[in-house]
């Protein structure tokens, strides 16, 4: 049996003061249904990816909550795995279709973060980390700063290399109408931005965002559908201290290897990849762990433009602008990555179209790498 | 393909002041693995059912959290659907096996509630309800009290009828070593207990509890395994105000009808059923909505002992003691129900053994009926 994405939609990402979670969900889901040419009554189950609604808003039971809002009286589930919640929701949805239990389902990824005080959001986000780390007062910028330091020491990666990731992703975001940021930035601007957790500066970090994305998954191919060639999850320790290496995410490597085998492709076959650049260093790790570049070689390649739109060699990384440029409403991100790749593989991505894109890879991470989810999409 | 429960274990339920979530998880999962005769390294995925860890404890990402604690470096997911989180986790686990993605998985249901202030727990639990209800200050006892009033008005159900449910379930709990309560109670004691939300009194309400339960699910039969003959979820509106009827849970009826068809059985074929008696009136509704009794007839039947252990006619309801007698650690409940039925169908339930039990039905509800999960188990 094969699984297809038959519809996809993403809302504007950003500081959406006048938007409610209900409104965002309606826009994303009804957009995806319209894109699929599907009536709502044909939907058989709803999978919701969300992390923070309980901690920040006091609302859980989001499966039933959004099912009611959307007028879908179907089995509904909330899947949570920190910033990988969206990808995990897609994985469970794919399995539910392969099981024969359902034939057409919707996955909604959604997060509303900017209604809350930044310190509350930072505290809530540490719910993704290990008890040791969060009770010691660590934050995710701090954890990724340690990863960055280790990578700099081991491979000679520089702060300018990391800055180049942000520059590229902001450039891509200027071509994406739904992106949070539409301003190009320079390596100098990144280097001069406020230090958050040395060596990471403000412009190395993905923002706090609101937004939603939805996809329709089906066991039946349709004219504009894209095939899900692999859906794989891997897990590592929550905390950095328990890991063998700080300069790779073992979960990403493990999930990617299995996904390439399942899809029958090699890393060099991937034309466009949405990778989890919650911090600039994370994109460098991802580009290596996913096999696009040898360990230690990704930073230079990214800096030389080999992963920028218009490149003639290699894979375009984060054509949407990524978490850094497009925004990072955590539960939405994993679904938005797939929605972006669907547009790319259909050739509908407008100014940010990756030339002749036929294979896409979505890479969604929870915490500092405890969960990794890989989806490979094919035309 | 068929799916089997090959191992099951439940911790003690109750006010477990000296137990940690980590310890409860280890006890339940390693107990289930031992019961299945399975090495941990054979487990291919972990599904965690939990509702409150984020809101009460600040810890999310529980899939990876418990995978690390248990030494399982496998794909891990947290599934949340309020008090139906456990049942929904089992449903997604079953589908993941049917999909061919995994062959052996573990489902852990867990909740640690008594470490927190009761008012904080009550507030957090309303995360299961509709926005209208929770922002208006409703509580679940209040919502079920409205259901009880409607049932009393429509069918002549009495407060003593509801009390009889608690009396039965406390009696069953005295036969269950893991139950929270081991004291028999009387109808008079229930009637004299403090009013919580008229007509519901303290002894009509399930308690705040700590506990965990785990099951091993596999695509392969084993000597002591029990077959999962149906796994079905249905959804209704979150809020009571949007429902056509207050005296039935439409989601329960819909899920049950589909489950009976899938399992190829009738309600009268069920020997033992763990139903979601979060309040005594909820067991009366369940006994009717599951088709064990005609609408309006369950209360009298329960009061006459027709659902009590040792009955010669009909189904035994909540041999474990149910949520009322055994306890209700919300994320654990849906998994514990299945663990109890596995013991019953194996004939290993000791003093609370249902005579010649061959078919079991687990009924897990989220909120005031927005989510219903039915599992039918067969020897």
Textual characterization of the structure:
The structure is a homodimer of 379-residue chains. In chain A, the strands form two sheets. In chain A, strands 3-2-4-7-1-8-12-11-9-10 form a ten-stranded mixed beta sheet, sandwiched between helices. In chain A, strands 5-6 form a two-stranded antiparallel ribbon. Chain A is of the alpha/beta class. Chain A has a domain at 3-118 and 208-218: Thiolase/Chalcone synthase (Peroxisomal Thiolase, Chain A, domain 1, 3-Layer(aba) Sandwich). Chain A is built from 14 helices and twelve strands. The interface between A and B is large, with 60 and 60 residues. Strand 3 (76-80) of chain A pairs antiparallel with strand 3 of chain B.
Quick recap of the structure?
Chain A is α/β, with parallel strands linked by helices. Chain A has a domain at 3-118 and 208-218: Peroxisomal Thiolase, Chain A, domain 1, CATH 3.40.47.
Q: Would you tell me which CATH topology of the domain at 3-118 and 208-218 in chain A applies? A: Peroxisomal Thiolase, Chain A, domain 1
Q: What is the first-to-last residue Cα distance of chain A?
A: 16 Å
Assembly type: homodimer
Name the biggest interface. A-B, 60 and 60 residues
Proper CATH architecture of the domain at 3-118 and 208-218 in chain A: 3-Layer(aba) Sandwich
- How many strands of chain A? 12
Number of helices of chain A: 14
